[in-house]
């Protein structure tokens, strides 16, 4: 969506109580079948992953995937707004059944389960007007004079903390906040997954050219689900394998990008799904 989130061990430990409370709740599979409804967590204003317009309608490739999962289960679909900061807690508490766009880190696997991978994407950046970075390597950002912005919980947070720990880091609630930060000069560089960066630039054409971060540490993205009896996770794993194998996931990715003005010829040739 990445797809895309990170959590610290301390944060995961803090979810233990929530996990205990959810233990007596119906499994995701039983809950879906009882309600005849699949509830997908989605982040608003994060094109081309997901977005809600003024009429309340959701769009984006994560939305299309959720609709297809519901159709395969022969149930309705409902979209639950979340954020990268709260989505794991939302899954654990049963607020929603799945979220499309997780990096399956070992830390996160202590708290939730996964199905996938859905796709694999690298990281890219947009710069504030007038900013001239030393280069596009992660190490070029490892300087306190460079102000780097990322959304809290996004997978770019993990990469920055690992490869550019000396950068002045600005963590904001939403990816759209980072786009505003570089446009207003409050940050020098906004880093995100390539699709998030392409979506931000499509929405704001006056932004800088897209910079691909190197080395290209591309991470696979998964669907996240609650830890329970595993029945829904097994179904979702088969769903991922089927739809990735026959090209549906790539189709949903590319058509969602085109719908927000990202032309396929604008995608750097180094980018693969």
Description of the molecule:
- By secondary structure, the chain is α/β, with parallel strands linked by helices.
- It is 34% helix and 23% strand.
- The chain has helices at residues 9-13, 16-22, 28-35, 61-73, 87-92, 155-163, 175-183, 194-203, 231-245, 248-259; strands spanning 37-43, 51-52, 58-59, 76-82, 98-102, 112-121, 123-127, 147-151, 168-172, 189-193, 211-212, 219-226.
- The strands form three sheets. It has a five-stranded mixed sheet.
- Strand 2 and strand 3 (58-59) form a beta hairpin.
- The protein is globular and about 55 Å long.
- The termini are close together.
DSSP summary: helix tally: 10
- In the predicted model, the low-confidence regions spanning at least 5 consecutive residues are 1-21
Strand order of the largest sheet: 4-1-5-12-6
Structural class: alpha/beta
Report the average pLDDT across residues.
88
Q: What is the alpha-carbon Rg in Å?
A: 18 Å
- CA-based shape: globular
Salient structural properties:
alpha/beta; disordered N terminus; 273 residues; five-stranded mixed β-sheet; single chain
In short:
With 273 residues, the protein is α/β, with parallel strands linked by helices. The chain is 34% helix and 23% strand. The protein has 10 helices and 12 strands.
């Amino acid at each position: 969506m990445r797809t895309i989130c990170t959590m610290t061990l301390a944060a995961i430990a803090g979810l233990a109580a929530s996990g205990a409370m959810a233990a007596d709740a119906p499994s995701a599979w039983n809950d879906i079948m009882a309600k005849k409804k699949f509830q997908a967590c989605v982040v608003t204003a994060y094109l081309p992953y997901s977005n809600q317009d003024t009429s309340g309608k959701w769009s984006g490739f994560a939305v299309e995937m959720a609709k297809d999962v519901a159709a395969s289960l022969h149930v309705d679909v409902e979209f639950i707004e979340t954020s990268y900061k709260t989505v794991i807690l939302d899954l654990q508490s049963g607020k929603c059944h799945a979220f499309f766009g997780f990096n399956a880190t070992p830390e996160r696997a202590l708290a939730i389960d996964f199905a996938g991978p859905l796709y694999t994407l690298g990281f890219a950046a947009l710069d504030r007007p007038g900013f001239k970075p030393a280069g596009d390597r992660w190490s070029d950002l490892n300087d306190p004079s460079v102000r780097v912005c990322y959304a809290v919980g996004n997978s770019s947070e993990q990469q920055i903390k690992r490869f550019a720990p000396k950068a002045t880091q600005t963590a904001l609630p939403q990816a759209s906040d980072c786009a505003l930060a570089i446009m207003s000069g409050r940050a020098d560089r906004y880093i995100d997954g390539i699709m998030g960066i392409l979506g931000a630039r499509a929405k704001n054409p006056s932004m800088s050219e897209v910079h691909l971060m190197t080395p290209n540490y591309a991470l696979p993205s998964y669907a996240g689900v609650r830890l329970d009896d595993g029945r829904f996770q097994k179904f979702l794993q088969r769903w991922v394998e089927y739809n990735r194998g026959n090209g549906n996931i790539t189709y949903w990715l590319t058509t969602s990008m085109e719908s927000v003005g990202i032309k396929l010829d604008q995608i750097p040739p180094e980018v693969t799904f």
